[in-house]
Amino acid sequence: MSKRATKGVLLVQLGTPDAPTTSDVRRYLTEFLMDPRVMDISKLGRTLLVKGVIVPKRAPQSAATYRTIWDEETGSPLMYYSELQRDLLQAELGEDYHVELAMRYQNPSIESALKKMEGMFFESIRVIALFPQYASATTGSVIDRVMELMRSWQYFPEVSFVSSYCDDDEMVGVYAEHGRKHDIDSYDHILFSYHGLPVRQLGKVDPSGNLKCPDFGCESCQVEKKPHCYLSQCYATTRAIVKKLNLSKERYTLCFQSRLGKTPWIQPYTSDTLRVLAEKGVKKLLVFSPAFVADCIETLDEILVEYADEFKALGGEEVAMVESLNDDPKWINVLKRLAIG
Asked: What is the pLDDT of residues 284-337, one digit of tens each?
């Protein structure tokens, strides 16, 4: 007779379509972009923009892109690595723990995972959002959704959240190790490309509403880690990896990808950075993507295909990408430590 688990761990990743079809991508994009923490405008404006403009235009294009990275046997790369992370973490934690995986958008949903966990009457539940840097649109949305769904529970175990681990030494070490596999000295320049964010969302963390952040962030955010500031945590991650690799300031640039819409997003944009580097004669680029703990469409397509094509059209020769944390045993050990608390 197996021992009953007394502690629950909920890993939450962003999400992926169920299949690389236009209809499934449409459902995924709609749920994602209708989240008020992601598209932080009025509900009417969000509905008109998302359902009337963005999704009808992007769903067919995104579906075609997903098909290029979709594996016939394992499906979505993000789902494949997330399930591996769940299973490997479960093996590491042992029978005292029960590990669930959920996607913030689409399946398996946070609702279905919590429904399963509710009936297990755990002493504690630890929620780990699989985003190293905190942002309201990512980790904040996960916490918001978990709290909303647990509101109806009659019995509450001890619940805790891991909000940020942007400069965790062991995690940073894994990124650095993966980078060293690429013979860093053979590249002209190193990029640290993070997922972008509308500038207005940086300032919204201030309850007074008086915080107005510039497009490149406050100067202090580039040197000081702040628990509420996504941009400062991206810089913190970069500083930590750079220190491990002993890179000089001239050897690397931090930038932001995946811009959506015409409103200002945090800068410098990855596309602009590629142009500047090409104009300086840079030919070979190595790209880190430390906002992602599993390879996904943003790394496998946006960087390796879209940005690589842009760079070559500008006169560059090569864009290589450092693989994400994926199923690296040392990353699983980081998750174990975060789960135990």
From this structure: 999 999 999 999 999 999 999 999 999 999 999 999 999 999 999 999 999 999
CATH of domain 7-165+329-340: 3.40.50.1400
Give CATH for domain 169-321.
3.40.50.1400
Q: Where is 254: in which H helix or E strand?
A: strand 252-257
| CB contact burial 214-233 (16+ within 10 A = b; e otherwise) | eeebbeebbeebbebbbbbb
- pTM across the whole model: 0.96
Q: Are 273 and 309 in contact (CB under 8 A)?
A: no
Q: Provide the 3-class DSSP secondary structure of residue 189.
A: strand
pLDDT tens figures, 7-49: 999 999 999 999 999 999 999 999 999 999 999 999 999 999 9
- For residue 101, what is the DSSP state? E
Rounded to a whole number, what is the distance in angstroms from the first to the last CA of the chain?
28
Tell me the domain boundaries of the chain.
7-165+329-340, 169-321
User: CB-based contacts of 300: which residues, under 8 Å, 6+ apart?
Assistant: 69, 77
Which DSSP letter does residue 5 get? P
Locate tokens 């510039």: which residue?
A: 214
Distance of alpha carbon 299 from its chain centroid, rounded? 10
